[in-house]
Amino acid sequence: MKALAYMIIMLALGSVGGLFFGSFWSIFVYYNFTVIRPQYLWQYALPPGIEWSFYAAIAPIGYALLGLGETGRPGRTWGTTHLTLAAFWLWSTISMLNARIPAIAYEWYMVNLKIYLMYFVASVLVADLRDVKRMYLMTAASIGYIGYEMNFEYFINGIMKVRIRGFAEYDNNGAGLILAMGIPLCWFAWEGLRSHWRWLFAALVPVLLHAVLMSFSRGAMLSLVIVTPLIVLRSRYRIATLTGVALFAFFGLPFFAGKEIQERFLSIEKSDADVSAQSRLGTWRAAYLMACDYPIFGIGVRNSPQFVGAYGHNLTSQTIHSQYLQLAADTGFVGLGLYIAFLASTVWAAVRARQYAAQLVPDVSDPTMAWAKGVEGSLVVFAVGAVFLSLETLELTYIVALIGARMACLTKAAAEGLIPGDGNLHNLPE
Fold it and tell me: How far is it, in rounded angstroms, from Cα 146 to Cα 96?
């Protein structure tokens, strides 16, 4: 009953509430639904067959159409991230039209189309740094809540749900990467906030760490290992952070990671004897050969899994366990280049946001710089994990990218004196 009440209240906030409190709340609700995936997370408490995200998407699309004329004002312009995503979207469209198996390409293209469309809708509606803050904290808290649910199932019901069922339509690897992306977001939410709520985000970090370990996803674990030095380097409390990481590595990790988890992670070093690793290498080789045969437009959106057998893999159909190689096979080397350009531009946007924010007053600059670091860390987690996983339909990536892009645009305009120092576009003179 509580879950259903939450959904109804949130839908009201996103639709009718948007008229009274601002159109931003419509995209806030939509992205909240796409992160926590209520139809999966609370399926036991919600009526079946309701497409909550579809209904939540109607209001923001309408508000965005009404607000398109505002995109030329300072702080509302679009940048490189939008250009590269639009180019990749166009290239995917051409790839879909030239696919070897059109039906499969069209089905997956439509999934991506919704994600790209809502990214541009959100770019219209996220209007000032207060909106960026709310979107950032909502995303971090939502992922943290997912981690809490996974831990609850384990400690109370004795079920390692994230390992067995994954999360939503994602398997354990996809779920593990989602949870891992939330760790830098929560860590820097703690650094950026000054209220007592900051300790909630601090408490979510070990919760998410344990959930990642329970996922048995080696890609997610490796992503965290690689991003940890970046978190330490970017932290305002480097010595304390480094000390905490060292203590966790020596004392906390053996406690959290039982024998099974330790063996799973250490099996990365035993790739010659690991059937899973050998299968992954087989799909990588097949994808590379496909990309060489179809270097411009690729074999077609999500067509590559259907042709791995024809390119020497021991199975006739299997997902390419690498985001980059799959895109090279599906959309050609050109499509892969555009996608990497999009990811790189979003990380660069987060870096620029930190640089611009440093020029603002401390009350604005300190939290904004912290959250820009969280965006940067989360995107690096995804970029590393994507080497081993195929998750081009993971909307969380685009939400984090959107936060970074809007933060960079708004802090730049504020630093240049084009908008108020707090990044609030509503304070602009008419």
Answer: 34
Name the token pair of 39: 């139809």
Per-residue burial over 357-385, b = 16 or more CB atoms within 10 Å of its CB, e = otherwise: beebeeebbbbbbbbbbbbbbbbbbbbbb
Backbone conformation region of residue 49, classed left if phi is above 0, alpha if psi is from -120 to 50, else beta: left
pLDDT, tens digit (0-9, with 9 covering 90-100), for 218-239: 888 889 888 988 888 888 888 8
Residues in Cβ contact with 362 at an 8 Å cutoff, skipping those fewer than 6 apart: none
Tokens of 370: 């912290």
118 and 57 Cβ atoms separated by less than 8 Å = yes
Read off the tokens for 220.
């997610």
Q: Compute the CA torsion angle 41, 253, 321, 179 (nearest 10 deg).
A: 30
CA distance 281 to 291: 15
**Residues 240, 234: Cα–Cα separation, whole Å:** 12
CA angle 233, 236, 240 (to 5 degrees): 80
Does residue 162 contact residue 208 with C-beta atoms inside 8 Å? no
pLDDT, averaged across the chain: 87
Cα-based distances in Å from 420 to 57, 261, 301, 362, 415: 30, 50, 44, 14, 9
Question: Residues 293-311: pLDDT tens digits?
Answer: 999 999 999 999 999 888 8
Whether 266 shows a pLDDT value over 60: the answer reads no
What lies within 8 Å, CB to CB, of 270 at 6+ separation is: 277
| Residue 70, C-beta contacts closer than 8 angstroms, at least 6 positions apart | 76, 124, 127
With a cut of 90, say whether residue 144 has pLDDT above it. Answer: yes
Stated pTM of the model: 0.91
